[in-house]
Amino acid sequence: MGVLGAFIFAAQMINFTIPGMGSSGHLGGGMILAIILGPHAAFLVMASVLTVQALFFADGGLLALAAISGTSGSIPAILFIPCSTNP
Fold it and tell me: CA 25 → CA 2, 79, 81, distances in Å?
């Protein structure tokens, strides 16, 4: 979990430009973690990554941490639950 968290943390810090839009984007690691680790562990790792980004890099800030954790952490994990269960 720690190594994947470090990888997602580094990958999300790399921004790329969107041609013709004048803005930039970055990798969203929630679904990648949900596929590899499962939904519950993915949420814990994403919450940890987003907390470190908010505290040390001022990326999003503390006031937006709950909203960012919800959208980047819980929604990909919840969307992956039906895919991970056996019928």
Answer: 24, 21, 26
Distance of CA 71 to the CA centre of its chain: 8
> CA dist 4 to 10, 43, 61, 67, Å?
10, 12, 23, 22
Q: Which residue has the tokens 């006031």?
A: 63
Neighbours of 39 (CB within 10 A): 20
Contacts of 53 (CB under 8 A, 6+ apart): 9, 12, 13, 59, 60
| pTM: predicted TM-score of the whole model, two decimal places | 0.77
Residue 24, token pair as written in the block: 């930039």
Q: What does the alpha-carbon distance between residue 25 and residue 36 come to, in Å, rounded to a whole number?
A: 23
For residue range 5-57, list pLDDT tens digits in order: 999 888 888 888 888 888 888 877 888 888 888 888 888 998 898 888 888 88
